Amino acid sequence: MGISSSYKLIKNSIVAFAAKYIPVSEGNAPPPFPPIIGTGFVVHEDGIIATNAHVVRAFANGVFIPPNAPKDEWPVSCMLLVLKENGMIEVPLPIIGAFRIDQFSAGQAYYGPQSGPDLAFVHVKVHGLPAVTLDDGSILEEGTEVATAGFRWVPMP
User: Fold this and answer.
1) pTM as predicted
2) What is the mean pLDDT of the chain?
3) How many structural domains is the chain composed of?
4) CB of 132 closer than 8 Å to CB of 43
């Protein structure tokens, strides 16, 4: 299967994590779309999203949180973006939890960073999401085309 065909299978499972609060200068309007701080993809229809650990760390450390923001509310929003003929539909997915690997012990066949895999999961309060089916049986051979899919990161103002 080629990259184009693969993308068609996963595009409806890609989500964006965006800053919920956007600081603006006096007299300036907020941007038309909130800054995206990371992406992920749905891995289970009951609201489990795989993303990077550095994205989840940015939820608390890399976004603007106003002093009067509710303490029990996530400072980011999760959005499923669905492309339609007449535009894009933004479907909000309320975040209810996140998990990242904070302790890791490398095994004999691990070749990644010593800190462990850059992997995290976010749980959203939505059921029936279009989940990506992961293929754990394929072997990547030399010359196999690979690609990434997501949304472009936009730095905070």
Assistant:
1) 0.81
2) 83
3) 1
4) yes
